[in-house]
Amino acid sequence: MSEDLTALDATKRKKSDSGQIWVDLGPILVFVITYNVLHRLEATKENAIYIATGVFIVSVLAAIAWCKWKRGKIPPILIVTGVLVTAFGGLTILFRDPAIIQIKFTFTFLFYAAAIFISLALKQNVWKLFFRHLFNLPDRIWNILAIRWGIFYIVMAGLNEVLRYNFNEANGQFETWLNLRTFLTYPAFILFALANTPITLKHHKDEDEAEAEATAPGA
Question: Would you state the pLDDT for residue 31?
Fold first, then answer.
């Protein structure tokens, strides 16, 4: 019976994690689609950036509300995203400057990298805090993963800055930046996650395995 319950809990957790991916990705996809549609309509072309940014803010807040309603809790990363999107998006609309929402993505990546490296310096691995409900790993592996992801976020911030410098509203290529950023960043995240899957699965131990090792003679 206990094994059946454990399997059921694991299945529910996988479905929940799969659904969370769409909750996290949904707002940015709405932002991209909204801008691309409005930018092609003569009546909304001039204000497409600001309308899409407003929709982006509403979408993120809706995602936060949905998590609170359906799950009773809001993922910390989604809270950070909500604060940053609302702040930078609001400033974009207020000052009518698309560069602000572009900078938001650089700031977000650097914020995550700083959070990871500062937490490691304080010996409180934030990467472990976020994902220990999914994997049971030795602290050494958690630290390796945290360092890798911290460096990856810095690289993504650099990539966004390169794209922002070359494609922006000033040279009439905001749409190019938005689409390139989306179609380069998310595949990069997926590929990087897959690249780190072997080390994660190799060292992951089920609760029963970890308990058996802890109670074994000489442990």
Answer: 95
